[in-house]
Design the sequence.
């Protein structure tokens, strides 16, 4: 299923800018007719610059086909100037605060959907920004301390946090208040990239968090041709 990383998709209907530079852009996929809601897709890639938003374009296209207005932003990652903590998260917060205006969806319900490291960023932003109505984490890296201890993806979490040993206290969703908005976690039981235990640990923090074990692995969650796509559609209502 990792072929989703290289699958082609149509170009976005428009591209808007939220910040200067190559990473300060948002691909916008417009639905046919009136949009049901606004979805911001936060791509994964273990916060590293070699992974960009393009691999989520097939998912963005599919969600727009389901009547959703989809915003697919880029953001600074490790390897980009200013990327890593806190610059990466600063970009996500800036996107959340400006996306309704930028895409012409003032007043729309806003759902953040993040995959892998993007799940970490989406849940973290939902806890900070009161304008988020729902956060959906797809195989999210929701336990940074565990990711560091596990050496996840050759030390990706430590690379993201950098030299500041205290950063984990503010960057780890496990140490931050649970968002007040609706939080839904989806994680494949066969995930060999991000342990399902990270989502299990986060879900155990609050009974309001909805958590679903799915049968597949890491990439089925972002593949609109996989059966797991129906679970994402259900989460988006």
Sequence:
């Amino acid at each position: 299923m990792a072929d989703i990383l290289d699958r082609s998709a149509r170009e976005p209907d428009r591209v808007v800018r939220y910040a200067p530079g190559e990473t300060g852009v948002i691909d916008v996929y417009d639905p046919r007719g009136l949009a049901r809601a606004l979805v911001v897709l936060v791509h994964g890639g273990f916060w590293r610059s070699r992974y960009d938003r393009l691999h989520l374009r097939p998912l963005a296209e599919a969600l727009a086909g389901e009547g959703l207005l989809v915003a697919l932003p880029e953001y600074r990652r490790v390897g980009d100037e200013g990327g890593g903590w806190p610059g990466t998260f600063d970009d996500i917060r800036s996107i959340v605060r400006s996306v309704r205006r930028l895409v012409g969806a003032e007043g729309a319900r806003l759902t953040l959907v993040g995959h892998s490291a993007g799940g970490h960023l989406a849940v973290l932003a939902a806890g900070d920004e009161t304008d988020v109505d729902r956060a959906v984490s797809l195989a999210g890296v929701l336990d940074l301390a565990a990711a560091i201890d596990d050496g996840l993806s050759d030390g990706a979490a430590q690379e993201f946090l950098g030299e500041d040993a205290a950063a984990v206290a503010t960057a780890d969703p496990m140490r931050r208040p649970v968002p007040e908005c609706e939080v839904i976690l989806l994680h494949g039981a066969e995930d060999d990239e991000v342990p399902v235990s990270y989502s299990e640990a986060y879900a155990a923090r609050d009974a309001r968090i909805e958590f679903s074990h799915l049968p597949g692995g890491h990439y089925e969650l972002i593949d609109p041709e996989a059966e797991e796509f129906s679970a994402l559609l259900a989460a988006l209502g």
Notes: The chain has a mean pLDDT of 97.
